[in-house]
Amino acid sequence: MVRTYLSAEHCDHAECGCPLAALAPEFARADKPLKVRILKEMAQYQSRMLPFMPGRTTAAKKRAFLAIISTMLGAVAIARILPDPKGRATVLANAQKFLLRSF
After folding, report:
1. Cα–Cα dist 51/55, whole Å
2. 3-state secondary structure of 56
3. Is 79 in contact with 17 (CB distance < 8 Å)?
């Protein structure tokens, strides 16, 4: 999952990728009812991903999920604003290496 999400293909095709990575700045400006719906969707996604998260307890798995998803979203968002393909690749590769070594 980390390798696919933090790939050049995902980064270069926002229209086909994760809506959170593409729309996070817009979601941040959304009204409270929409934010509540987004939070509900995130909780459902977390529930589906929890079995795959590192950690021995549910609490540890939830912490890992938040760290992993936040790092991946941030890395893709930063990479997408960089004009140079080499710079984008560096951001994605560093985030990927960090996550794969940390977890």
Report:
1. 10
2. coil
3. no
Helices (runs of H) and strands (runs of E) counted in the chain: 6, 0
Nearest to 80 by CA among 2, 10, 27, 3: 10
| Tens digit of each residue's pLDDT (9 = 90 or more) over 2-45 | 999 999 999 999 999 899 999 998 999 999 999 999 999 999 99
SS3 1: coil
CA distance linking residue 22 with residue 83, whole number of Å:
16
> What is the rounded distance in angstroms from the CA atom of residue 60 to the CA atom of residue 8?
30
Helices 19-28, 58-81: inter-axial angle, 10-degree rounding:
80
Domains parsed from the chain with CATH numbers: 2-102 (1.10.357.10)
Residue 103: pLDDT over 90? no
Q: Is the model's pLDDT at 49 over the cut of 90? A: yes
